[in-house]
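wait is this the right file?? whatever heres the structure
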């Protein structure tokens, strides 16, 4: 399963962005390929292995089946993927 969080305006030149994560790295890369993402855009941070998506790509990701999570749900999912339990 793949997931996206809410768009946030970080002052990025391409506008608001969000994160794309997945239950497995293979699933994440496969989904990113479907979105036309370059593998070099992968953020290999052990705390949150992800791709950053523009608003346009986020909309496409949702159409392709990515699950939208609010901030709390997204943080919980990210922790779960790292094997960190919630307090």
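ok assuming it is, sequence goes like this
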């Amino acid at each position: 399963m793949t997931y996206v969080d809410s768009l946030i305006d970080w002052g990025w030149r391409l506008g608001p962005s969000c994160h794309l994560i997945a239950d497995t790295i293979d699933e994440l890369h496969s989904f990113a390929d479907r979105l036309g993402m370059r593998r070099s855009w992968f953020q290999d941070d052990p705390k949150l292995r992800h791709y950053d998506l523009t608003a346009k790509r986020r909309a496409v990701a949702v159409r392709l089946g990515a699950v939208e999570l609010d901030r709390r749900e997204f943080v919980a999912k990210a922790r779960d993927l790292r094997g960190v339990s919630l307090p």
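Strands lie at 2-4, 17-22, 43-45, 48-54, 67-68. so i think its the right one actually
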